[in-house]
Amino acid sequence: MRQFALTLLLTLTSQIALADATSSLKDYLNNTKSMQASFKQVVSDKQGKTQTSSGILAIQRPGLFRWMSQKPFEQLLLADGKQFWIYDPDLKQAIVKDIGKALESSPAALLAGNNQFERLYTLSTLPTKDNIEWLEAKPKKADNSFDVIKLGFNQGQLAQMELHDHFGQTTRIYFSDININPKIDANQFRFTPSKDTDVIRE
Q1: What is the CATH number of the domain that holds 65?
Q2: Which of 53, 61, 58, 100 lies closest to 78, judged by CA?
Q3: Which domain of life is it from (predicted)?
Q4: Which residues span the domain enclosing 70?
């Protein structure tokens, strides 16, 4: 009887935690129409080597985002609702893709998507760590860019992301200076390459 009671308690606790984490995700999807923030991104490979970058992002849901890495070098990821741009100003090179094909190719695209997260991913709860409530999302389709996505919420606010891809890389993203639902200039989500930029269409 005690074993049954303990099992029941653990099951209920797990369900409550999942409900809380899922609620945080739903609140973000339902209540966040736009977002501006600073980010720090750390990418680790199988050998443990890391690359760190930082910058700013702007999101207008659904489908518009601007992800600007500023350090150690500049790179722009931008979705204008129809096309997805990757621009390297040092190389004067821009890669442009159809937005549908590139929808899951960046963390910003996940944040800027529609409210169909639960339809595309299987959700499960993870232990809370350092006051961060974690939710794990595994894609239901095998052709997703990521094997596992983890979302960390602090008091209902998205604070961290962790992404594991097919190549064994782990990308950790930390958000700060978060501004929810600001009015963002539409020009933030437009990109016109200069005449001397090499444009590659994929």
Answers
A1: 2.50.20.10
A2: 58
A3: Bacteria
A4: 2-201
User: Taking the alpha carbons of 75, 43, 65, 85 in that order, is the dihedral positive or negative?
Assistant: positive
What pLDDT is attached to residue 31? Answer: 84
Residue 151 CB-density burial (10 A; 0-12 exposed, 13-18 middle, 19+ buried)? buried
| Span 37-77, pLDDT tens digits | 999 999 998 888 999 999 999 999 888 989 999 999 999 99
Q: Residue written as tokens 């443990």?
A: 48
Dihedral sign, Cα of residue 12, residue 17, residue 20, residue 23: negative
CB 58 within 8 A of CB 179: no
CA 108 remoteness from chain centre:
5
First to last CA, the chain: 62
* Six token digits for residue 154: 């602090």
* Sequence-separated (6 or more) residues with CB below 8 Å from residue 176: 37, 38, 39, 40
Q: pTM of the predicted model, to two decimals?
A: 0.81
- Tens digits of residue pLDDT in 92-151: 999 998 876 565 555 666 677 766 666 777 888 888 888 888 988 888 877 667 888 899
> Among 127, 122, 128, which residue's Cα sits nearest to residue 144?
122
Question: Tokens 């860019």 label which residue?
Answer: 145
Q: How many domains does the chain have?
A: 1
